[in-house]
Amino acid sequence: MASHKLVHLLPIIVLITIPTGYVMASPPAIKAAYWPSWIETFPPSAIDTTLFTHIFYAFLLPSNVTFKFEVSDSTASQLKNFTGTLHQKNPPVKTLVSFGGGGSDPKLFARMVSNKGSRNIFIDSAIELARTYGFDGLDLDWEFPKNPEEMASLGQLFKEWRVAIKKEAKSTHRAPLLLTAAVYFSVDFQWNGIYRKYPVESIAESLDWVNAMCFDYRGSWDTSATGAHAALYDPNSNISTSYGLRSWVRAGVPRNMVVMGLPLYGRTWQLKDPKVNGIGAPATGVGPGDDGVLIFSEVEKFNKENGATVVYDAKTVSTYSYTGTSWIGYDDSQSTTVKLKFAQALGLRGYFFWALSYDSDWEISKQASRAWVIG
Ligand SMILES: *[C@@H]1O[C@H](CO)[C@@H](O)[C@H](O)[C@H]1NC(C)=O
Ligand SMILES: *[C@@H]1O[C@H](CO)[C@@H](O)[C@H](O)[C@H]1NC(C)=O
Ligand SMILES: *[C@@H]1O[C@H](CO)[C@@H](O)[C@H](O)[C@H]1NC(C)=O
């Protein structure tokens, strides 16, 4: 254990040496998290706002027919309660409403962005929604545009959205709404044999920042071997957070517009052989949790109750635990801290968590807030 720690001090020290001139010029850091609106046991009042700068309401969808937001009475009161509560807190935080999410139909957005008329309707309705319910900004989480045409239309949407936001701010004499997007961990990717790349020019000129979803690299869709689902490094592939974040920077998105995603959950497997229990060990199925997913507080509970062995893996910068045939890959405070150093050394703007309420007594959220030393 002790020698393990020593080995890890070195990269941390190296990474901490950030060119200060650059740091001084950067805008305030983003320390964000998404709030899953369906978890009734975790109301907005439970959010510790000393740890965050921005909280995203997850999620809303426009009508799949009109592309307008048609908010029910119960959702309306929840939206008002969310912004009202978070703005009254000491310190207050900024609030954004996020549209879409991993579980929503990507074709809805594909249809909406495909022509100017429906883009306009969506944009105007989104701005009106934000103002009606007191949000500071808007976020699009479309998972995912499926080809170059959809990526081009997304770029068009962002440009028109920014124009509309500026216009509204001018005519109402209010601060412009923030505009952000949750995006794939990498700026470009091949999927189902189709190459696609995010519209970086439009993003750079239209958005405040992007939230890169640096997680879910492995999971229940491949049960042949265990994996670090949010590995910072992968010696064998480009599916890693370091590759993804650098790809955004290399493509020309300003560093201070890139925000690193951090998972507050693990992914689990059943080991084929309890004695072969590293990353990449043969597996036979998913392990504990809902479809092989355990939120961080459940991981800690599981480890404790089952006396699991916990290992920090420096090669991938991830944590895993195992007991019997159960195996969990996740991030704890230690691996999260190393990732934060990496993101700061790269000059990125900040980090966000998926998701609020998955932490264990704010353990990782607190450590992250302390570890992000700039901005
Ligand atoms: C729109 O949503 C409704 C309700 O979820 C669904 O039944 C319908 O098929 C959707 N329409 C389109 C065009 O996707
Ligand atoms: C939010 O809802 C809670 C629980 O119903 C209530 O106690 C609180 O006063 C509401 N806060 C705001 C700002 O609406
Ligand atoms: C990773 O991406 C680089 C380009 O960014 C490419 O040259 C290389 O072949 C890729 N490696 C793998 C293993 O796919």
Task: Describe the protein's architecture and organization.
- Helix 6 (148-172) packs parallel to helix 7.
- Strand 6 (188-191) and strand 7 form a beta hairpin.
- This protein has an eight-stranded parallel barrel with strand order 1-2-3-4-5-8-9-16, surrounded by six helices. Strands 10, 11, 12, 13, 14 and 15 form a six-stranded antiparallel sheet that branches. A two-stranded antiparallel ribbon has the order 6-7.
- The protein is globular.
- It is of the alpha/beta class and 375 residues long.
- The protein has two domains: 30-264 and 332-371, Glycosidases (TIM Barrel); 269-328, Chitinase A, domain 3, CATH 3.10.50.10.
- The protein contains eleven helices and 16 strands.
- Residues 237-238 line the site of one 2-acetamido-2-deoxy-beta-D-glucopyranose (NAG).
- The site of one 2-acetamido-2-deoxy-beta-D-glucopyranose has 2 residues, from loops.
Question: How are the SSEs ordered, and which strands pair?
Answer:
Blueprint: H1 2-16, H2 20-25, E1 30-36, E2 54-60, H3 73-88, E3 94-100, H4 106-113, H5 116-133, E4 137-141, H6 148-172, E5 178-184, E6 188-191, E7 194-197, H7 200-206, E8 209-213, H8 241-250, E9 258-263, E10 265-271, E11 283-285, E12 293-295, H9 296-306, E13 309-313, E14 318-323, E15 326-330, H10 333-345, E16 350-354, H11 363-371
Parallel strand pairs: 1-2, 1-16, 2-3, 3-4, 4-5, 5-8, 8-9, 9-16
Antiparallel strand pairs: 6-7, 10-11, 10-12, 10-15, 13-14, 14-15
